[in-house]
Amino acid sequence: MKKSIKERLAILSDAAKYDASCASSGTTKRDSSTGGIGSTEGSGICHAYAPDGRCISLLKILMTNFCIYDCAYCINRSSSNVERARFTPEEVVWLTLEFYRRNYIEGLFLSSGIIRNSDYTMEQMVRIARDLRVTHVFRGYIHLKTIPEASAALIEEAGLYADRLSINIELPTDAGVEAFAPQKHPANIRRSMGELKDQIDAASEPTFRKRRKAFVPAGQSTQMIIGADQASDATILGTSANLYGSYALRRVYYSAFSPIPDASKHLPLIKPPLMREHRLYQADWLYRFYGFGIGEITAARPDGMLDLAIDPKLSWALANRDRFPVDINKADREMLLRVPGFGVKTVDAILAGRAHKRLGLDDLKRLKVSVKKVQPFVTAHAWTPVKLIDRSDLREMMMPKPQQLELL
Ligand code: SF4
To answer: What is the reported pLDDT for 22?
Structure first.
């Protein structure tokens, strides 16, 4: 008996939880004041945090969890015995519009297993995006995961309708992809990323036309499964740095591998490395926004792994105590950004504030900085941390109290 749309929704939204994504920041601002429906702004049910901190809600589903591929790390692989379901393109369009009208979502995140072949599946995904944009003038956010090995022409067409496209790199090393996803080809994945970057670059070149055609305005991203193979954090972050540099990616999403039914047939059982995923996001952030090199972030341990107990910035500071304390009234921006507990906004506020007066710990408190956290690492007006930075128990003093892990 055919499953109801509600039953299929339960299966295909649950199956999509392994896809890391969901960030509608960085796209163009649109609303429906001049016609159409939807908006890339506003708020609703919160599913994820965008890189700019904004909460967004997306209908996050797979078009189908049937798949002809057999990637060892994936619950939807062909040899898995999960319950299967499939939406038609029309059903996905209908669901998106209904959820939007009920104010449940601000957009759509769509991924899929591969049915028949890559191009057939990708064509259906493009059809969904095109119907939403062209037929229904949907102005909400659309993030499409491209289908591995899909043709360049289909990916290019998807780019006309999607805010963001993802081409998954899958695993941190080519050897890992070859071992665990033998039907995928790292060279083809990189070629697709390169072609998409060229198309995005071409679309953003200056033109005399008043209205340029939007092409993937929120850029491309990728996803890397972590913990399925033995790659170290240094290897993972090194791969990410290469991808950011080569393909102008907006984001690398790290997805902690979860042991899945029948996994023992393919993979050793590994505890889901959720804290590891969290630390990798933090390290990635330090690389992109705080001027840290990957080598610096991962130098603290000989095995190239991040310290799971403390965040990577604190870990670096403890391993480089000779660089502290930092005088908040004199240090340059680059060094202020390396102080544990200082974010980019805090550093900008310090630089602006010290133009008028010498700043003390009270000023940091007013900036909502945890004074306890920064005290050992800074000097300020009326504050010098006498030998605090040299204490042998500083790491223990700075350890966060156990609490529930907050993931992105
Ligand atoms: S192609 Fe995608 S859906 Fe299919 S098995 Fe591989 S990871 Fe899973």
So the answer is: 45
Ligand 1: residue of 19, 65, 69 to mutate (most ligand atoms within 8 A of CB) is: 69
Look at residues 66, 73, 69, 113 and name the one whose alpha carbon lies nearest to residue 266. Answer: 73
pLDDT in tens, 156-174: 999 999 999 999 999 999 9
Give residue 293's pLDDT. 97
Atom of ligand 1 nearest to the CA of 77: 5
Kindly state whether residue 288 falls inside one of the protein's structural domains.
no
Q: Are residues 100 and 197 in the same domain?
A: yes
Closest residue to atom 6 of ligand 1, CA basis: 71
Residue 169's domain comprises: 5-272
In a domain, 311, yes or no: no
DSSP 276: H
Contact residues for 167 (Cβ-Cβ < 8 A; gap 6+): 146, 155, 189, 192, 193, 196, 220, 222
Residues 6 or more apart whose CB falls under 8 angstroms from that of 3 comprise 11, 85
Q: Residues 197, 198, 203, CA angle at the centre, nearest 5°?
A: 100
**Which protein residues touch ligand 1 with a CB less than 6 Å away?**
67, 69, 71, 74, 76-77, 113-114, 148, 181
User: Residue 371: how many CA atoms within 13 Å on its side-chain side?
Assistant: 14
Q: Give, using CA atoms, the residue closest to atom 5 of ligand 1.
A: 77
Residue 365's CATH number: 1.10.150
Query: With contact defined as beta carbons under 8 Å apart, do 408 and 48 qualify?
Result: yes
pTM reported for the whole predicted model: 0.86
| 233 and 367 part of one domain | no
Distance 74 CA to ligand 1 centre (A): 6
Q: What angle do CA 46, 366, 390 make, to 5 degrees?
A: 100
Instruction: Show the tokens assigned to 194.
Output: 């390169």
Per residue in 306-350, pLDDT (tens digit) is 999 999 999 999 999 999 999 999 999 999 999 999 999 999 999
